[in-house]
Design a protein that fits this description.
About 5% of the residues lie in helices and about 25% in strands. By secondary structure, the chain is mainly beta. The chain has one domain: Elongation Factor Tu (Ef-tu), domain 3 (Beta Barrel), CATH 2.40.30. It starts with 9 loop residues before the first strand and ends with a helix.
Length: about 150
């Protein structure tokens, strides 16, 4: 397959210095405040984003050095070993992350966000408003995560 490359549009500022510092429990927000600092050339692309409550950050997990595995053991569910594509594990064939955060504000080319779960300095590839379609959420199922949640 053809190799793909992207140029980051900005980077994350967060209280987490290392990947192991980021909380992994999928049932809640980290509660951490962070910032997405875009290159000023992309400022115009933020027009009207402040009307959304949440933003999807598409990022490159630049500090991951672990070898890709196709099965994983989530730390919060030691009795389950799902495939990597059935998890949000950062150890993947490509170090790409999707992070949904609450948008607290936009100031110039900087977004203040809540619930950040990315490491400080993480390159941002893209931003999108979180705008699910109601009909897409009807019948939402959470797979093996539902069993983990019920056992807590």
């Amino acid at each position: 397959m053809e190799e793909i490359s992207y140029t980051p549009i900005g980077e994350v500022e967060s209280p987490f210095d290392r990947p192991e510092d980021v909380p992994t429990d999928p049932t809640g927000s980290t509660g951490a405040t962070g910032w997405v600092r875009l290159d000023p050339a992309y400022r115009e692309g933020l027009a009207h984003l402040e009307g959304f409550s949440h933003v999807v950050i598409v990022a490159h997990l630049h500090l991951l050095e672990e070898e890709t595995t196709l099965r994983t053991a989530p730390p919060f569910a030691p009795d389950v070993e799902p495939g990597v594509f059935a998890t949000r594990s950062p150890v993947r064939p490509n170090n790409v992350a999707l992070s949904i955060v609450r948008l607290a504000g936009v100031d110039g080319a900087t977004l203040e966000v809540e619930g950040i779960d990315l490491v400080d300095g993480t390159p941002v590839i893209d931003l999108k408003p979180f705008a699910p379609k109601d009909h897409e959420l009807a019948g939402l199922e959470m797979g093996w995560l539902e069993d983990v949640e019920e056992s807590r």
